[in-house]
Amino acid sequence: MNQLMISHRLRSAAGMKRAYCLFCLCLLAGPVIAQTTKNVYPNTGICAGLPKVDLATPAGFCVGVVAQGFKFPRGIAPLPNGDLIVADLGGWTPNKGSVWLLQRTASGYKKRQLLDRIDRPHGVAIGPDGRVYIGVVGGIFRFNLREPKIEYVIGENSGIAATPSSGRHPLTSFVFDRDGQLFVNVGSESDNCDKDDVMPDPARPCAETTGREPRGVIRKYAMQWPEGKVGAWVNFASGLRNSIALAAHPESKLLLQGENSRDAINRRIPGMANDEDQPHDELNVIESAQNYGWPYCYDNGKASPEFPGADCSRYRKPALLLPAHVAPLGMIYYSGNAFPAEYKGNLIIAYHGYRKYGHRIVAIPVDVRGVPNGPTRDLISNWEPRKNQPRGTPVDVRTGADGALYISEDRNGTILKLVYENPPPR
Fold it and tell me: What digits encode the pLDDT tens for the residues 271-281?
Protein backbone atom coordinates (compact mmCIF):
# COMPACT_ATOMS: atom_id res chain seq x y z
CA MET A 1 0.00 0.00 0.00
CA ASN A 2 1.58 3.30 -1.03
CA GLN A 3 1.90 6.37 1.18
CA LEU A 4 -0.79 8.32 -0.69
CA MET A 5 -3.34 5.53 -0.13
CA ILE A 6 -2.43 5.30 3.59
CA SER A 7 -2.79 9.06 3.94
CA HIS A 8 -6.18 9.01 2.21
CA ARG A 9 -7.49 6.21 4.43
CA LEU A 10 -6.33 8.03 7.56
CA ARG A 11 -8.11 11.20 6.40
CA SER A 12 -11.28 9.20 5.60
CA ALA A 13 -11.26 7.58 9.04
CA ALA A 14 -10.71 10.95 10.68
CA GLY A 15 -13.61 12.43 8.71
CA MET A 16 -15.96 9.67 9.83
CA LYS A 17 -14.84 10.13 13.43
CA ARG A 18 -15.51 13.88 13.20
CA ALA A 19 -19.00 13.24 11.81
CA TYR A 20 -19.77 10.80 14.63
CA CYS A 21 -18.54 13.22 17.30
CA LEU A 22 -20.53 16.08 15.80
CA PHE A 23 -23.63 13.94 15.94
CA CYS A 24 -23.00 13.15 19.61
CA LEU A 25 -23.24 16.87 20.37
CA CYS A 26 -26.99 16.50 19.65
CA LEU A 27 -27.16 19.90 18.01
CA LEU A 28 -29.29 18.74 15.09
CA ALA A 29 -32.12 21.03 14.08
CA GLY A 30 -35.66 19.92 13.31
CA PRO A 31 -38.43 18.22 15.24
CA VAL A 32 -38.44 14.63 16.38
CA ILE A 33 -41.52 12.95 14.88
CA ALA A 34 -43.13 10.02 16.62
CA GLN A 35 -44.34 7.10 14.52
CA THR A 36 -48.12 7.25 14.53
CA THR A 37 -48.84 5.99 11.01
CA LYS A 38 -50.78 2.83 10.30
CA ASN A 39 -48.64 -0.30 10.09
CA VAL A 40 -47.71 -1.25 6.54
CA TYR A 41 -46.87 -4.83 7.45
CA PRO A 42 -48.73 -7.07 9.92
CA ASN A 43 -46.58 -7.74 12.97
CA THR A 44 -45.67 -11.45 13.01
CA GLY A 45 -43.30 -11.43 15.97
CA ILE A 46 -39.99 -9.86 16.93
CA CYS A 47 -36.81 -9.58 14.83
CA ALA A 48 -33.81 -8.09 16.65
CA GLY A 49 -36.17 -6.08 18.84
CA LEU A 50 -38.19 -4.79 15.87
CA PRO A 51 -41.63 -5.78 14.52
CA LYS A 52 -41.05 -8.82 12.34
CA VAL A 53 -42.23 -9.06 8.72
CA ASP A 54 -43.45 -12.36 7.27
CA LEU A 55 -41.04 -12.79 4.34
CA ALA A 56 -39.01 -15.71 3.03
CA THR A 57 -35.34 -15.65 4.08
CA PRO A 58 -32.57 -18.24 4.45
CA ALA A 59 -32.57 -20.14 7.76
CA GLY A 60 -31.56 -17.96 10.69
CA PHE A 61 -32.39 -14.62 9.00
CA CYS A 62 -35.35 -12.35 9.72
CA VAL A 63 -36.67 -8.96 8.56
CA GLY A 64 -37.75 -6.20 10.94
CA VAL A 65 -39.40 -2.80 10.42
CA VAL A 66 -37.04 0.05 11.37
CA ALA A 67 -39.36 2.92 10.39
CA GLN A 68 -42.39 3.69 8.26
CA GLY A 69 -44.52 6.64 7.24
CA PHE A 70 -42.12 8.09 4.67
CA LYS A 71 -43.56 9.40 1.41
CA PHE A 72 -41.08 7.83 -1.04
CA PRO A 73 -37.74 6.86 0.60
CA ARG A 74 -34.88 6.10 -1.76
CA GLY A 75 -31.21 6.35 -0.70
CA ILE A 76 -30.00 5.47 2.80
CA ALA A 77 -26.65 5.74 4.60
CA PRO A 78 -25.91 4.07 7.95
CA LEU A 79 -23.81 6.07 10.44
CA PRO A 80 -21.15 4.60 12.73
CA ASN A 81 -23.38 4.93 15.81
CA GLY A 82 -26.25 2.93 14.29
CA ASP A 83 -28.36 5.86 13.10
CA LEU A 84 -29.47 6.20 9.48
CA ILE A 85 -29.69 9.02 6.94
CA VAL A 86 -32.70 8.66 4.61
CA ALA A 87 -33.45 10.60 1.41
CA ASP A 88 -37.20 10.82 0.80
CA LEU A 89 -37.90 11.61 -2.86
CA GLY A 90 -41.34 12.89 -1.87
CA GLY A 91 -42.80 11.77 -5.21
CA TRP A 92 -42.02 12.89 -8.74
CA THR A 93 -43.11 16.52 -8.27
CA PRO A 94 -40.07 18.85 -8.03
CA ASN A 95 -38.99 20.23 -4.65
CA LYS A 96 -41.15 17.95 -2.49
CA GLY A 97 -38.27 15.85 -1.17
CA SER A 98 -36.68 15.75 2.27
CA VAL A 99 -33.71 14.33 4.19
CA TRP A 100 -34.16 12.55 7.53
CA LEU A 101 -32.20 11.16 10.42
CA LEU A 102 -33.39 7.94 12.03
CA GLN A 103 -32.02 8.01 15.56
CA ARG A 104 -31.55 4.66 17.25
CA THR A 105 -33.06 4.48 20.74
CA ALA A 106 -33.53 1.75 23.33
CA SER A 107 -37.06 1.14 22.06
CA GLY A 108 -36.55 1.54 18.31
CA TYR A 109 -35.92 4.55 16.07
CA LYS A 110 -37.05 8.18 16.06
CA LYS A 111 -37.48 10.20 12.87
CA ARG A 112 -35.94 13.66 12.70
CA GLN A 113 -36.30 15.83 9.60
CA LEU A 114 -33.07 17.56 8.64
CA LEU A 115 -33.94 19.22 5.31
CA ASP A 116 -37.08 19.76 3.25
CA ARG A 117 -38.18 21.19 -0.12
CA ILE A 118 -35.38 19.28 -1.86
CA ASP A 119 -35.67 18.44 -5.56
CA ARG A 120 -36.17 14.67 -5.75
CA PRO A 121 -33.23 13.50 -3.60
CA HIS A 122 -32.10 9.98 -4.37
CA GLY A 123 -28.45 9.02 -3.83
CA VAL A 124 -26.93 9.21 -0.33
CA ALA A 125 -23.35 8.57 0.82
CA ILE A 126 -21.00 9.51 3.63
CA GLY A 127 -18.03 11.15 1.94
CA PRO A 128 -14.35 10.70 2.80
CA ASP A 129 -14.65 13.99 4.72
CA GLY A 130 -17.38 12.57 6.97
CA ARG A 131 -20.09 14.78 5.53
CA VAL A 132 -23.40 13.59 4.11
CA TYR A 133 -23.67 13.79 0.30
CA ILE A 134 -27.10 13.85 -1.36
CA GLY A 135 -27.80 13.40 -5.08
CA VAL A 136 -30.63 15.62 -6.36
CA VAL A 137 -31.93 16.43 -9.83
CA GLY A 138 -29.09 18.24 -11.60
CA GLY A 139 -26.38 17.78 -9.00
CA ILE A 140 -25.05 16.83 -5.57
CA PHE A 141 -24.93 18.74 -2.29
CA ARG A 142 -23.42 17.99 1.10
CA PHE A 143 -23.88 19.00 4.73
CA ASN A 144 -22.53 18.11 8.16
CA LEU A 145 -24.64 16.66 10.93
CA ARG A 146 -23.90 19.41 13.44
CA GLU A 147 -25.49 22.04 11.22
CA PRO A 148 -27.47 20.70 8.23
CA LYS A 149 -26.69 23.55 5.86
CA ILE A 150 -26.69 22.76 2.14
CA GLU A 151 -23.47 23.23 0.18
CA TYR A 152 -23.63 22.23 -3.48
CA VAL A 153 -20.58 20.51 -4.96
CA ILE A 154 -22.15 19.91 -8.41
CA GLY A 155 -24.85 22.20 -9.83
CA GLU A 156 -26.57 25.28 -8.38
CA ASN A 157 -23.97 27.75 -7.02
CA SER A 158 -21.07 25.28 -6.78
CA GLY A 159 -19.15 26.55 -9.81
CA ILE A 160 -19.46 23.06 -11.34
CA ALA A 161 -22.12 22.81 -14.05
CA ALA A 162 -25.32 20.92 -13.29
CA THR A 163 -25.78 17.45 -14.73
CA PRO A 164 -28.39 17.00 -17.52
CA SER A 165 -31.74 16.10 -15.99
CA SER A 166 -34.50 16.30 -18.59
CA GLY A 167 -36.60 13.39 -19.70
CA ARG A 168 -37.13 9.89 -18.42
CA HIS A 169 -34.22 9.43 -15.97
CA PRO A 170 -33.43 12.60 -14.02
CA LEU A 171 -32.36 11.09 -10.66
CA THR A 172 -28.77 11.33 -9.44
CA SER A 173 -27.03 8.29 -8.02
CA PHE A 174 -23.30 8.21 -7.30
CA VAL A 175 -20.54 6.34 -5.54
CA PHE A 176 -17.11 7.16 -4.10
CA ASP A 177 -14.39 4.63 -4.77
CA ARG A 178 -11.67 3.68 -2.28
CA ASP A 179 -9.56 6.68 -3.35
CA GLY A 180 -12.45 9.10 -2.95
CA GLN A 181 -13.03 9.65 -6.66
CA LEU A 182 -16.65 10.34 -7.55
CA PHE A 183 -18.69 8.45 -10.18
CA VAL A 184 -22.10 9.88 -11.11
CA ASN A 185 -24.95 8.46 -13.18
CA VAL A 186 -26.37 10.56 -16.02
CA GLY A 187 -29.41 8.57 -17.11
CA SER A 188 -30.89 8.51 -20.58
CA GLU A 189 -33.50 11.03 -21.67
CA SER A 190 -35.61 8.42 -23.48
CA ASP A 191 -36.49 4.75 -23.27
CA ASN A 192 -34.49 3.67 -26.33
CA CYS A 193 -33.77 6.86 -28.30
CA ASP A 194 -37.44 7.32 -29.12
CA LYS A 195 -39.15 10.66 -28.77
CA ASP A 196 -42.91 11.06 -28.42
CA ASP A 197 -43.14 7.41 -29.48
CA VAL A 198 -41.38 8.19 -32.77
CA MET A 199 -38.74 5.68 -33.83
CA PRO A 200 -35.19 7.03 -34.31
CA ASP A 201 -33.55 7.08 -37.73
CA PRO A 202 -31.53 3.84 -37.83
CA ALA A 203 -29.02 5.41 -40.21
CA ARG A 204 -28.05 8.15 -37.75
CA PRO A 205 -26.42 8.09 -34.32
CA CYS A 206 -28.85 8.55 -31.45
CA ALA A 207 -28.77 12.31 -30.82
CA GLU A 208 -28.85 12.08 -27.03
CA THR A 209 -25.68 9.97 -27.00
CA THR A 210 -23.60 12.58 -28.84
CA GLY A 211 -22.07 15.95 -28.03
CA ARG A 212 -20.24 17.33 -24.99
CA GLU A 213 -22.91 16.21 -22.51
CA PRO A 214 -24.33 12.91 -23.75
CA ARG A 215 -26.95 10.98 -21.84
CA GLY A 216 -26.68 7.36 -20.78
CA VAL A 217 -23.20 7.76 -19.30
CA ILE A 218 -21.27 7.54 -16.05
CA ARG A 219 -19.21 10.63 -15.29
CA LYS A 220 -16.04 10.63 -13.21
CA TYR A 221 -15.31 13.75 -11.20
CA ALA A 222 -11.77 14.36 -9.95
CA MET A 223 -11.90 15.04 -6.19
CA GLN A 224 -9.37 16.79 -3.98
CA TRP A 225 -9.32 15.78 -0.32
CA PRO A 226 -9.58 16.60 2.54
CA GLU A 227 -11.42 19.73 1.39
CA GLY A 228 -13.71 17.78 -0.94
CA LYS A 229 -13.15 20.10 -3.87
CA VAL A 230 -14.70 18.92 -7.14
CA GLY A 231 -12.47 19.33 -10.18
CA ALA A 232 -12.73 18.40 -13.83
CA TRP A 233 -15.03 15.63 -15.04
CA VAL A 234 -14.95 13.20 -17.93
CA ASN A 235 -17.50 10.88 -19.49
CA PHE A 236 -15.97 7.75 -17.98
CA ALA A 237 -18.20 5.16 -19.72
CA SER A 238 -21.14 5.33 -22.14
CA GLY A 239 -23.93 3.25 -23.63
CA LEU A 240 -25.59 2.78 -20.22
CA ARG A 241 -29.30 3.52 -20.18
CA ASN A 242 -29.71 4.18 -16.46
CA SER A 243 -27.02 3.49 -13.86
CA ILE A 244 -28.98 3.94 -10.65
CA ALA A 245 -27.20 0.90 -9.12
CA LEU A 246 -23.47 1.55 -8.73
CA ALA A 247 -20.96 -0.22 -6.47
CA ALA A 248 -17.20 0.21 -6.06
CA HIS A 249 -15.28 -2.80 -4.75
CA PRO A 250 -13.55 -1.81 -1.48
CA GLU A 251 -10.21 -3.42 -2.40
CA SER A 252 -9.85 -3.61 -6.18
CA LYS A 253 -11.80 -0.37 -6.85
CA LEU A 254 -13.64 -2.21 -9.65
CA LEU A 255 -16.75 -0.25 -10.60
CA LEU A 256 -19.88 -2.32 -11.16
CA GLN A 257 -23.09 -1.03 -12.74
CA GLY A 258 -26.61 -2.45 -12.62
CA GLU A 259 -28.29 -1.64 -15.93
CA ASN A 260 -32.01 -0.88 -15.97
CA SER A 261 -32.68 -2.03 -19.52
CA ARG A 262 -35.31 -0.75 -21.92
CA ASP A 263 -39.08 -1.27 -21.79
CA ALA A 264 -41.69 -2.40 -24.30
CA ILE A 265 -39.35 -4.08 -26.77
CA ASN A 266 -42.33 -6.20 -27.90
CA ARG A 267 -43.85 -3.10 -29.50
CA ARG A 268 -40.88 -3.01 -31.89
CA ILE A 269 -40.54 -6.73 -32.68
CA PRO A 270 -43.38 -8.21 -34.77
CA GLY A 271 -44.93 -11.30 -33.25
CA MET A 272 -43.53 -10.79 -29.74
CA ALA A 273 -46.53 -11.09 -27.43
CA ASN A 274 -45.01 -9.32 -24.41
CA ASP A 275 -41.72 -8.21 -22.92
CA GLU A 276 -41.84 -10.24 -19.70
CA ASP A 277 -38.56 -12.00 -20.48
CA GLN A 278 -36.77 -9.46 -22.68
CA PRO A 279 -34.53 -7.68 -22.50
CA HIS A 280 -32.48 -8.80 -19.51
CA ASP A 281 -31.24 -6.27 -17.02
CA GLU A 282 -27.47 -6.42 -16.65
CA LEU A 283 -24.42 -6.20 -14.44
CA ASN A 284 -21.56 -4.42 -16.21
CA VAL A 285 -17.92 -4.11 -15.20
CA ILE A 286 -17.23 -0.46 -15.96
CA GLU A 287 -13.93 0.49 -17.54
CA SER A 288 -12.69 3.83 -18.79
CA ALA A 289 -13.71 4.95 -22.31
CA GLN A 290 -15.79 1.82 -22.96
CA ASN A 291 -19.25 1.80 -24.57
CA TYR A 292 -21.81 -0.78 -23.37
CA GLY A 293 -24.19 -0.61 -26.30
CA TRP A 294 -27.34 1.30 -25.34
CA PRO A 295 -29.46 2.12 -27.37
CA TYR A 296 -28.04 0.11 -30.27
CA CYS A 297 -27.66 -3.32 -28.68
CA TYR A 298 -28.99 -5.31 -25.72
CA ASP A 299 -28.34 -8.59 -23.89
CA ASN A 300 -25.23 -10.39 -25.18
CA GLY A 301 -24.87 -8.52 -28.45
CA LYS A 302 -28.37 -8.46 -29.94
CA ALA A 303 -29.16 -5.51 -32.22
CA SER A 304 -32.06 -3.37 -31.01
CA PRO A 305 -35.08 -3.36 -33.34
CA GLU A 306 -34.65 0.40 -33.78
CA PHE A 307 -31.08 -0.16 -35.03
CA PRO A 308 -31.19 -3.53 -36.85
CA GLY A 309 -27.89 -2.93 -38.62
CA ALA A 310 -25.88 -2.17 -35.47
CA ASP A 311 -22.47 -3.84 -35.18
CA CYS A 312 -22.77 -5.15 -31.62
CA SER A 313 -19.19 -6.49 -31.62
CA ARG A 314 -18.10 -2.88 -31.04
CA TYR A 315 -19.59 -2.76 -27.56
CA ARG A 316 -18.72 -4.30 -24.21
CA LYS A 317 -20.91 -7.22 -23.18
CA PRO A 318 -22.41 -7.63 -19.71
CA ALA A 319 -20.56 -9.45 -16.95
CA LEU A 320 -23.86 -11.08 -16.02
CA LEU A 321 -27.40 -11.04 -17.39
CA LEU A 322 -30.06 -10.54 -14.73
CA PRO A 323 -33.71 -11.54 -15.16
CA ALA A 324 -35.78 -9.13 -17.24
CA HIS A 325 -37.16 -6.01 -15.58
CA VAL A 326 -35.86 -6.72 -12.07
CA ALA A 327 -34.79 -3.04 -11.99
CA PRO A 328 -31.63 -3.11 -9.85
CA LEU A 329 -31.69 0.15 -7.88
CA GLY A 330 -29.44 -0.51 -4.88
CA MET A 331 -26.21 -2.51 -4.84
CA ILE A 332 -23.30 -3.05 -2.44
CA TYR A 333 -20.51 -5.45 -1.64
CA TYR A 334 -21.35 -6.92 1.76
CA SER A 335 -18.65 -5.71 4.17
CA GLY A 336 -20.12 -6.80 7.50
CA ASN A 337 -19.29 -9.73 9.77
CA ALA A 338 -22.76 -10.56 11.07
CA PHE A 339 -23.82 -12.98 8.30
CA PRO A 340 -22.59 -16.54 7.69
CA ALA A 341 -19.15 -16.77 6.08
CA GLU A 342 -20.51 -17.66 2.63
CA TYR A 343 -21.99 -14.15 2.32
CA LYS A 344 -18.75 -12.29 3.09
CA GLY A 345 -17.93 -9.94 0.22
CA ASN A 346 -21.00 -10.98 -1.80
CA LEU A 347 -22.67 -8.53 -4.12
CA ILE A 348 -26.07 -7.63 -2.62
CA ILE A 349 -28.70 -6.21 -5.01
CA ALA A 350 -32.17 -4.78 -4.44
CA TYR A 351 -34.53 -5.84 -7.22
CA HIS A 352 -37.17 -3.11 -7.26
CA GLY A 353 -39.10 -4.33 -10.31
CA TYR A 354 -42.81 -5.03 -9.98
CA ARG A 355 -42.74 -7.73 -12.68
CA LYS A 356 -42.53 -11.45 -11.89
CA TYR A 357 -38.76 -11.56 -11.28
CA GLY A 358 -38.49 -8.44 -9.14
CA HIS A 359 -39.29 -7.40 -5.54
CA ARG A 360 -36.55 -9.30 -3.76
CA ILE A 361 -33.03 -8.95 -2.32
CA VAL A 362 -30.37 -11.24 -3.77
CA ALA A 363 -26.74 -12.16 -3.03
CA ILE A 364 -24.17 -13.12 -5.69
CA PRO A 365 -20.66 -14.45 -4.93
CA VAL A 366 -17.79 -12.55 -6.58
CA ASP A 367 -14.14 -13.16 -7.37
CA VAL A 368 -11.24 -11.33 -5.74
CA ARG A 369 -11.77 -8.30 -8.03
CA GLY A 370 -15.50 -8.14 -7.34
CA VAL A 371 -16.74 -9.66 -10.62
CA PRO A 372 -19.87 -11.86 -10.14
CA ASN A 373 -18.86 -15.52 -10.47
CA GLY A 374 -21.47 -17.61 -8.67
CA PRO A 375 -25.16 -18.45 -8.55
CA THR A 376 -27.70 -15.87 -7.42
CA ARG A 377 -29.31 -16.62 -4.05
CA ASP A 378 -32.40 -14.98 -2.58
CA LEU A 379 -31.94 -13.18 0.74
CA ILE A 380 -35.51 -11.87 0.83
CA SER A 381 -38.26 -13.30 -1.36
CA ASN A 382 -41.97 -14.21 -1.30
CA TRP A 383 -42.55 -10.47 -1.33
CA GLU A 384 -45.76 -10.74 -3.31
CA PRO A 385 -48.92 -8.86 -2.31
CA ARG A 386 -51.18 -10.88 -0.03
CA LYS A 387 -53.82 -10.23 2.57
CA ASN A 388 -52.93 -7.13 4.62
CA GLN A 389 -49.41 -7.11 3.19
CA PRO A 390 -48.07 -5.21 0.15
CA ARG A 391 -45.65 -6.24 -2.59
CA GLY A 392 -42.04 -5.40 -1.78
CA THR A 393 -40.55 -2.27 -3.33
CA PRO A 394 -36.85 -2.34 -2.32
CA VAL A 395 -34.68 0.54 -3.54
CA ASP A 396 -31.44 0.96 -1.63
CA VAL A 397 -29.54 -1.58 0.44
CA ARG A 398 -26.63 -0.76 2.76
CA THR A 399 -24.51 -2.52 5.38
CA GLY A 400 -24.80 -1.06 8.87
CA ALA A 401 -22.08 -0.87 11.50
CA ASP A 402 -23.76 -3.87 13.16
CA GLY A 403 -23.38 -5.97 9.99
CA ALA A 404 -27.13 -6.01 9.27
CA LEU A 405 -28.55 -4.92 5.93
CA TYR A 406 -30.77 -1.81 5.88
CA ILE A 407 -33.26 -1.54 3.03
CA SER A 408 -35.47 1.32 1.82
CA GLU A 409 -38.85 0.76 0.16
CA ASP A 410 -40.24 3.68 -1.80
CA ARG A 411 -43.87 2.78 -2.53
CA ASN A 412 -44.41 1.28 0.93
CA GLY A 413 -42.65 4.13 2.72
CA THR A 414 -40.60 1.88 4.99
CA ILE A 415 -37.05 1.18 6.12
CA LEU A 416 -36.39 -2.50 6.85
CA LYS A 417 -33.54 -4.43 8.46
CA LEU A 418 -32.29 -7.90 7.47
CA VAL A 419 -30.69 -9.62 10.46
CA TYR A 420 -29.00 -12.96 11.04
CA GLU A 421 -30.09 -14.36 14.38
CA ASN A 422 -28.56 -17.88 14.07
CA PRO A 423 -30.34 -20.94 12.71
CA PRO A 424 -33.61 -21.86 14.42
CA PRO A 425 -33.66 -25.12 16.43
CA ARG A 426 -34.84 -28.27 14.67
Answer: 999 999 999 99
